[in-house]
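Example record

Each entry pairs one chain with its bound ligand, magnesium ion.
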Amino acid sequence: MDHPEAQRAFATDVVRQLRDANYDALWAGGCVRDRLLGRQPKDYDIATSARPEQVRELFGRKRTLAIGAAFGVISVLGHKRVDPIEVATFRSDGNYLDGRRPEQVTFTTAEEDAQRRDFTINGLFYDPLGDRLIDYVDGERDLRAGLVRAIGDPSARFTEDKLRMLRAVRFATTFEFAIDETTRDAIRSMADEVTVVSAERIGVELRKTLIHPNRSQGVRLLHETALLHPLLPALDQLATDHAVAWQAVLTRLQRLETTSLAAAFAALLFQNADSSSIRGLARGFRYTNKEVDRVAWLVEQLPLVEQAADLPWPRLQRVLVHEGAPELLAVSTACWGAEHSGVRTCRTRLAMPIEELNPPLLLTGDDLVAQGLRPGKYFGQLLEELRDAQLEQKVETRSQALDWVDRWLADHPSLGKRP
Ligand code: ATP
Ligand code: MG
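Structure tokens for the complex follow.
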């Protein structure tokens, strides 16, 4: 949402148009919660007594999208600076067959619509025209108390939709809330059933938990609610059996200063699994190929950072010119602290001007051909060694590089004779 004021005005206007047409209409759910918390809502959802067809009729077919119509949701499009707003008919959900989605929905009252929502803090309505909070579920009380509490009977609500268990941890993490005791007990007793949820949805919730600065509490909560067991069994085992190692994981998650999912995932699992298992886990949560590669790269490079103070510069330089170097520094700092010798070395080097950190190549393969060398596989080796010499500042100019090539050829008489 690029223009929060415009978005808010649009959300108010949609409510006004519905009211003018004699329908009930209210802001609902996350946006009401966020405003009470003094946060900018990510988006505004509207709940209304109007049926999907009536919403379309009121705003016009061209200004509406009916993608979610089966659940009573119509998207109303605004002018170009605002995002579409979802307008959902008050509904109660029918039976849940697959532990994730209702079989059918029934259109109903605002009060029943509140009851079908997951947590009390997400069950609030707000009337933007009358500046009035409508609270059927004691959501305001829990918001003030900092509590995530299921609406109704927690076990029944988690039986309907197992994803809610992960949402509870995610909301507790991102708002720094506690989970109400009865709700937490219900999660603990059915946590293993979370696996009926698609890997992708699980991955999304875990991502939101891990990228948040409060991720350490979030991961601790995953363990305490027994959700860590189905998600990351080996880590759960570690948490249960090795208090010291587990505390180290939590500490580095807490120290980690980045919003990178790859960095957080690496910090979570480094030293607790090898890089190929970690890669498999990241792929299992359907993280992007780029993130999966980055996680594996990070856990492979971390041991080098630990020894960076003793590494030859050309070896370390090749790591630090990688696109992932800032994430690597963030994870290393979280693992060993800012004053660790290897971490300090990397931080100092990364602060160097780019021409020094990564000076342009003195020669390329084309230059070698222009010098009359016969192209071949040995070009790779020659140029790598020339790069080392350059980084060690043994060779600093193009003409020194050409002399260096002559000496190299003399030392490797079987390779690259000039024709
Ligand atoms: P976010 O800040 O992540 O967008 P949100 O509360 O807006 O949080 P959404 O997933 O956008 O969450 O859902 C909007 C609203 O729909 C929620 O506030 C809640 O009332 C309801 N809701 C969403 N998912 C569920 C669910 N799985 N079960 C019950 N109600 C849900
Ligand atoms: Mg939302």
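The pocket of magnesium ion (ligand 2) is lined by residues 30, 42-43 (CB under 6 Å).
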